[in-house]
Amino acid sequence: MSDLKREQRKNEHVEIAMAQSDSTISDFDDIRFVHHSIPNIDLENINLQSQLKDFTLEHPLYINAMTGGSEWTKQINEKLGVIARETGMAMAVGSTHAALRNSKMASSFTVVREMNPQGIIFSNVGADVPVDKAKESVQLLDAQALQVHVNAPQELVMPEGNRTFSTWMDNLSQIVAHVDVPVIVKEVGFGMSKETIKQLNEIGVRYVDVSGRGGTNFVDIENERRAYKDMDYLGLWGQTTVESMLESTDAQQDMDILASGGVRTPLDAVKCLALGASAVGMSRPFLNQVENNGITATLEYVEQFSDHMKKIMTMLNAKDIEDLRHAQMIFSPKLQSWIEQRNLSI
Ligand SMILES: Cc1cc2nc3c(=O)[nH]c(=O)nc-3n(C[C@H](O)[C@H](O)[C@H](O)COP(=O)(O)O)c2cc1C
Questions:
Q1: Distance between alpha carbon 223 and the CA centroid of its chain, in Å?
Q2: Closest residue (by CA) to atom 31 of ligand 1?
Q3: Which of 162, 263, 268, 330 is the most exposed place for a label (fewest CB within 10 A)?
Q4: Nearest ligand 1 atom, CA 212
């Protein structure tokens, strides 16, 4: 496949993702917090900082992996880099494969580091890259962590996608053993099971991003790119972010679990943290904001989002993220059934 075709694919992903809309039904609505009438804390004392195993996040929200690898996406990365710097959010770049293959593409990723020299940046590769390329991807951005995406459904629906997966687990072990920054194994919108999370823990992975169903949908995106658009029936494949967070419960002692996929409101984000997430990622909302409304409006959006999260935490009497983990939640019968059928110890 030529570099030109790859560049075109990057742009198509962004275009199709921006045109997608969220389903009106969200699994986050299957969780309700119990309201108590008299909080004994003040809004001004709420602290959003999150302590992970290897670093502290000033903000529990992060800009999740999307772009790089073309001229257009370089411009998007530049703007997202500024937003990360101004808000103190961590930011992941999209898959750096384009830069690893062709150094002319490097600047579409490194622009993020240029915009934000002191920030926390995650680099991103796929589960099939050799260890030396994974190391190169970290060096490219002087990254604090490396996201390794696992995206089998996307590859299988993608007309020109990968069809070989049996080497992934061994390769992941190699990457974890030899890359000298934390490795975050990340889904791309299909969620994770407790079995997958346990397998990853066993090979030394200490961070996963469950990136569940409910937001950007890569079966739909790749299906749009198929000549006959014939795989649309797979649109509901995978676990939602809420189900994935429940699946992660047993692993939360040993691992930092990051939540993403369909997080759209401050209440969704607070629910992720209450379910045990150490941080919460969003992709498409930041893309749409920055491309449709610009940097200043996106900064206001983040400020509002944070302010609303603090207000919700005040109602929950949770002064920080640790307190949120004790918030009382009620699950819908649908979620309760998932918990029972999957034997989850919640
Ligand atoms: C345009 C676009 C490109 C993406 N590219 C990548 C990628 O290169 N690597 C990756 O790990 N995830 C990628 N993702 C997936 C996101 O990081 C995230 O897992 C997914 O979009 C769900 O989050 P959302 O519902 O907030 O968009 C991409 C998402 C979008 C919208």
A1: 22
A2: 284
A3: 330
A4: 22
